[in-house]
Amino acid sequence: MQKENIEKEIEALRQKIRENDDLYYVLNKPAISDQEYDRLYRKLKEFEDAHPELITPDSPTQRVGESPAEGFAVVKHIVPMMSMENTYSAEELKEFDERVRKNLKKEEYEYVVELKFDGVSISLLYEKGRWVRGATRGDGAEGDDVSNNLKTIRSIPLKFNENVKKVPSRVELRGEVYMTKDVFESINCEKEKAGEEPFANPRNAAAGSLKLLDPRIVAKRRLNIFIWGLGYCEGIDFGRHTDLLEYLKEAGFRVNPHFKLCKEIKDVIDFCNSWKTKREKLDFEIDGMVVKVNDLGQRERLGSTSKSPRWAIAYKFPAQKALTEVKDIIVQVGRTGTITPVAILKPVHLSGSTVSRATLHNFDEIERLDVRIGDKVYVEKSGEIIPKVLSVAKDKRTGKEKSFPLPKVCPACASRLHSAPDEVALRCENAGCPAQIKEKILHFASRDAMDIEGMGIAITDQLVDRGLIKDYADIYYLKMGDIERLDRYAEKSAANLLNAIEKSKSSDLNRLIYALGIRHVGEHSAWVIAEHFGSISKLSGAGIDELTRIREIGPVMAESINNFFSNKENLNILRRLSETNIKMSRSGIGAKKGGVLEGKTVVVTGTLKNYSRSRAEELVRSLGGNPSSSVSKNTYFVLAGEEPGSKIDKAKALGVKIIDEEEFKKIIKL
Ligand SMILES: [Zn+2]
Prior knowledge:
With 670 residues, this protein is α+β, with helices and mostly antiparallel strands. Residues 333, 410, 412-413, 415, 428, 430, 433, 435 line the site of zinc ion.
């Protein structure tokens, strides 16, 4: 490979890893499986190992994890929390053993093999046997002080058991907070009943719970913990890891009993393999095993690389698979007309949840796998992502299986499907396709777009099916009589919906641009575009050249925007929108120029009662202000909600004005 190609490849990998870090750590919404992530990471590592001159300080390989979340004080771990190197095969375990043997010269050594809990790593500090604080791993060096949340976990002792002979004067313990499978299911059940999005898996549920600002809610999440190690210790010398575990148990800590001492690597491998199936009987999830050198003196001699210790390694299990039957294959039509095939499965239990459908991605995938209706298939769910069909058990075929023909027409509108030359996906290009219309309307009305409360799936289905709306402009032409006639709609709820529709007319321009559903234009791009053009009419008149001159708009997005505004039908919809007096520019109410906060920097922190943080920031922008995430001496004021965290201290130290929600309301009404 050419040097510049390698450079490009490295940057692309970094970007992909960063995006997923963000989804995983900040939003708790992973988009790819851990294995895929590790594969990306290892590929990047290989490239960088081969070309050390291309390593930059901001490469994901150069840091250990997430950055602290907002709302908690940041604490420094006495000893950084390192991450462990992952392996996936017996071969790699043998290689690890070779390295240990070589480095320890001819010394005897033994391993302790433990379960690898699929939870959240934390660090607990005790002084003279008394609890001081607990923190998340964070970036390894610094984490969030989540003491109040950790203290809700009853299995964490607030002081050491009195019958231990000796207590360390200062000790930093390492453990893993987790949620049992049962608690996970019951919490998700409640969430679904309340119409909230369920957690993807027990690990995300535990991580999400630890980041809650209200410990009372955390307590209801019934988290639990296993202590598995030591970061720092003053006052007691432990000879071996197993001595430490024994001591911790006596001192009142929860230590997992399923560990084994092994002298030979082949015993290590056997023990690891035995847990591949045994793990299903545990009431919590593990995603592998951890192999550690038992002798702490030897650990010191082995030392560590900049990222991970040389005396330990993680062995990760392959993703869980299950065999089930394909009852049917259906196709779904997305907002932009993309057709996606989905396998309807005989429900099967997998990774702690019941799976009844799996994505087939596209029709090439159906062909590649040769999936037929009636086939027995292996499905994989690597924790959090949507389950997918891995392979077909062809030896189980009876001859009655039916192959699924490539659809020629859209299931919703029967128009011919097309595939673009550079895309595998089939699409329905009929602008009047009811399935697309429904998706577009749901997007238009969604929380992050025009935020029309009450405009959900059930009502959208009815409105479109009855021909009452054909596009999102029609929403603003609905009359009381139209809605009242729908199933399960009474006068009151119809009035509520009309009110919500009316209210949405004054949504900010960036929301409207996002709501239009232009391909490739996400929330952030919509904001950039709104800032640049200031009105729909200016935007619609912009050519590709002008669009690509904006730093954050690439050629693909520019072309997509241009196509959208060249389409007669779209222009017609926009004209009808403007005739309803919907806000189509930044001028008018909440104009940026001359707003009361013009040119001022404002920081929003903590939990607010009446607004989400992003909504409050939007209000600041609408008044001409610039929301910022860090406090400096130039900050005009800090709007603080509940549990505001360290930003308040900084504001106080700098003498920056701190206001509450009531004062903020007064300001925005001015
Ligand atoms: Zn269609």
